[in-house]
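User: Could you check the structure of this?
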Amino acid sequence: MSTGMFPINTMNADILSWLTGILTEKSLAALGAILMIYLGILARKYLVPLLQAQRNREVAEYILVIADDVTDYFRLKFPSAHWSVWLDRAVDRIIEITGVGRDVADRVARASVARKGETQTETVKPALKPTR
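Assistant: Sure, the predicted structure tokens are below.
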């Protein structure tokens, strides 16, 4: 019952012949196609949103840098004016440069002004420390 170096019993031979009958070249190609479709679905579900989030983060950082530059420019151009005077011009300039919507440009301009600490009014004086 054994041929050559490897003994083959009849049960193993039946299983192997059954598998070779099922695993033909066409069935393997179909199985590979199904596997590729499944991998594509998984990539679209998990990998694409991750890559888009990274791209969106980079674009947001780019817009914030532009907003910082634009608000710095208007602060230097109008040093005695309050930030609310030139904010609309800065928002228009950010829209012109980046092409984002008005609400996004307004938010980044206000965030830039807030980061620089210019949202406090100049009339408010710091509290004096009590003396003993």
